[in-house]
Design brief:
alpha/beta, Rossmann fold, seven-stranded parallel sheet
Length: about 300
């Protein structure tokens, strides 16, 4: 019987699935107790984490008998992949399991920000009637969505957007604009500069790499179409938060939805205060009741297979 340590939230049925076969320590608070986490890691044959557990440094060194790291999500920047490979550790992300949740978040926030009318409940309930002020909202149909990154998540987002009547552009540093994968989803491949200049909504779907860190700084934000909306569900360091706040305050951008931040939890951020055209969420774009179930079940199944 192997020992599986789960350091962050995992759906109960998936925990039970693993516990039926192996000895499982499930403690979502373990991520916040570094000494105990390292102590438990020393006896783990498998460790299951989300994005807050940093599988590197002292924790990686503590995983002396571990064979597999299950990642309840898809981003791997919290895991030292070369270090895991050197130790023979198999790293298993939940590829595709939360894609629908993220794609729906992108389109829902895009519609909310383009329309600009959904924060009026308190005013209407108080007897105000801001009909004229809220009558200039924009429809999503006919707008252009620009996807920065065109992996499986970008492709699913494109298909949903096309169903809403959007035109879709996509840029992927790993694909030529003529790559046939774009045409399969009715998407036009293009350069990043062309995408930024034409898109009414820009959505980021790239990993955090040296090449993507600060990708959307002041210059690139200024190059976006006036009134455009930016959505970041990828990684916080890809967007310069101060430059984004300035672009929103100046009116150059029509809105932004930001689900990921350079520091999480996000500390008090005065630069974001008072921005009615800004949606901030605590890294939950890929977290829904259904996605949690899919992600947890996938990782439980794959971890059990790796330990067999």
């Amino acid at each position: 019987m192997a020992r599986i340590v789960v350091t962050e939230f995992m759906d109960a049925p998936a925990v039970a699935q693993m516990a039926a076969v192996h000895d499982v320590l499930y403690d979502p608070a373990l991520v916040d107790d570094a000494p105990r986490l390292r102590a438990e890691a020393a006896g783990a044959d498998a460790i299951v984490v989300r994005n807050r557990t940093q599988v590197r440094g002292e924790l990686l060194a503590a995983l002396r008998r571990c064979r597999v790291v299950g990642r309840l999500g898809v981003g791997l920047d919290n895991i030292d992949l070369p270090g895991c490979a050197a130790r023979g550790l198999q790293v298993i992300p939940a590829t595709g399991a939360n894609a629908l949740s993220v794609a729906e978040y992108v389109l829902a926030t895009a519609m909310l920000l383009l329309r600009g009318a959904y924060a009026a409940s308190a005013a209407v309930a108080a007897g105000q009637w801001p009909r004229a002020a809220l009558s200039g909202g924009r429809e999503i149909g006919g707008k252009t969505l620009g996807l920065v990154g065109f992996g499986s998540l970008g492709q699913l987002t494109a298909r949903l957007a096309r169903g809403l009547g959007m035109q879709v552009l996509a840029h992927d540093a790993m694909r030529a604009p003529t790559d046939p994968v774009f045409a399969q989803d009715g998407v036009r491949g293009c350069t990043l500069d062309a995408l930024v200049a034409q898109a009414d909504v820009v959505s980021l779907h790239v990993p955090l790499l040296d090449s993507t860190r600060g990708l959307f700084g002041a210059a690139r934000l200024a190059a976006m179409k006036p009134g455009a909306v930016l959505i970041n569900t990828a990684r916080g360091e890809i967007v310069d938060e101060l430059a984004l706040a300035a672009a929103l305050k100046s009116g150059h951008l029509g809105g932004a939805a930001i689900d990921v931040f350079g520091t999480e939890p996000l500390p008090a951020s005065p630069h974001f205060e008072g921005l009615a055209n800004l949606v901030l969420t605590p890294h939950i774009a890929g977290v829904s009741a259904e996605a949690n179930g899919r992600v947890s079940t996938l990782i439980a199944t794959r971890v059990l297979e790796a330990l067999a």
